[in-house]
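Appendix B, example 12.
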Amino acid sequence: MGVVLALFAAPAAAAGNEEAVRKCQELLPGFTTQPSRLSIEVQPHGRRTDRRPPGLDGQGRRRPTDGGWIICWFLPRKSDSEAWQLTQVQSSHFGRLSRYDIQQLYKRLTILTARATVPAESDSLEGHLLYVLQQSVNGISLGCVYALIAIGYTLVYGITRVINFAFGEIYMIGAFLALIAYVVIQASGGAMGSRA
């Protein structure tokens, strides 16, 4: 599948658009894995309604020979040192993506990249056993926290015969006091949590 990347940017930024092209190309794996060809068009910023996506004829129908297209719209920059910010992406297959959708696509691509860089030894039996052990420790730790909260509810109800619904707030006060104590100890040069 051939892909056409079209970028709509401010006219003054025509000389420094390499960063914008790179940002748009980073999104390509979210749309296609192996483009057969890639052509890039950089067009000046204008009204979105007067721009026809590449690969469409005058009536807005897709040309039969077109493989696909991706259009990246960027916010105008005030200076050449300002970073490019994607505001919208439109593609032939997925339609229009908002800024939130673009953020989710970046997260998905980050996860896929991280998965590809996982070392082979983590897929061994030892790696699986270590994963199960780590998840068991996580579950036991969380279970202990829940057990402490349940014991607190039981003790209060057993003594006063009244259910104290403010127990969660008391638990949170304790957590914040522990955090404040930790920050104070660290700021005063204490060695809490540091390694020798």
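The longest helix spans residues 125-160. The beta strands are 3-9, 38-44, 69-74, 86-91, 95-97.
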